[in-house]
Amino acid sequence: MVQIFGDFLEDTSDTPEFLLIGFSPSAIPLKQRWRNNGLSASFIADYLITFFPVDDNEVEMLDRRDKLIGAARYIANELLENAMKFNYEESQQPVSVKLELKNNCVVFWACNAIDPTGIEQFQAFIQELITKNPSELLIRQVEKNSVEEWESSGLGLLTIMDDYAAKLGWKFDTLTQTPCVTIVTTTVQLFL
Question: Is 2-191 a domain of CATH 3.30.565.10?
Answer without folding.
Answer: yes
